[in-house]
Design goal:
Elements lengths: L2 H11 L5 E6 L8 E5 L2 H11 L4 E5 L2 E2 L9 E13 L10 H20 L4 E5 L4 E9 L3 H16 L6 E4 L7 E3 L4 E2 L11 E2 L1 E2 L10 H9 L18 H9 L3 H7 L17 H14 L4 H10 L4 H4 L2 H12 L4 H6 L1 H9 L3 H4 L4 H9 L4
Length: 365
Amino acid sequence: MIEEDVRFTFRFLGHEHETEVRLIDPRGRETPRSAFVHSEDEFVEACRAAEGTFNVYAGINERRAGGTKAEDVVRVCGIIYDADPIRPDTKEAATDEEMALAIAFGRQLQARRREQGVQCLLAESGNGAQLWAKADLREDLRRVEAAIQEHQRRTAATAPAGVRLDNIGDLPRIIKVIGTLSIKGSGTLPRPHRLSRWLDPKVVPPVSGSFMAALRRYDPPTKSAPVDTAAARLAPDEVRRIVGELGPKALLLFEGRQAEVLNHSGKPYASRNEAESALATICAIHGLEPGVTSAVLASSRIGKWATRGESYHQSILKGAYANLPAPAHAVVDPDVLREFRSGSRRARMVVEPDDLAEFRGGADA
């Protein structure tokens, strides 16, 4: 255990009254157990007592005394992006190279958030990368939960090949206590058990007022997205050019090669419906109008769009745009568009020697 990192995790969460520490048996033999602590020292001791035997987690958001459910949450305290490398066997830990890929993506996402006024800290979770942003929201929490989940779903669409961004925006979510050991799989030399640790200086960042306001303004969708029929009649060459600017994942989907593309769970797309929904979401994230997205789907070799009627079309578009919330516009769209237009995904996500050195070196950045 890295005590100073565990202590900083407690300070970052900043719970005012109580924090749940949840212990999960990596072998799956015991039922998860919870301890409720009320001070930094109690938090550290609970983590120390479980070190090496359990994976140690803490509730991200503050709850009522003894609470573990969504209805118990009284304050949203953090928004955390959890990036894991896609591995041949999800029950085993990642290799150094897989870890470095996740950390490189975390650094890129951190830079994008910084440009938009959201300060985040990067941590190695022991099996991936986590980006932590401070939050302080106490009202209308179900609406906030929906906004965070929608924001994370759209951010996940920007993850590179080989990395999956999990959606962990639900109110009662628990998170790895940074500074404790990650116990996953058999713990072999190429795929070892690792200590999680903070990669940035341990200073709690300020809450982004504009980001919090955007989350509060989120309005769940009630209407279908309108379709620009003129845009839907784009020439095939123009459609192809547009898709080429959306990145390799979009191009593979457009060509009907969804079996070669991994979804957010690290598996090939199971149906044409799922593949078309993914392609439409990529179009929406990149700022394409619904009519242009319709033209892309109509020309796609996935093929289901062309055989279905208006109700199916509107369902796909509604799911992709979902009355696109302010956080997605403010935090995702412009940077994602520039990133995808800058070159191929593979070229952008090459693991730099410094990334691998930072991971292997163990020193704070």
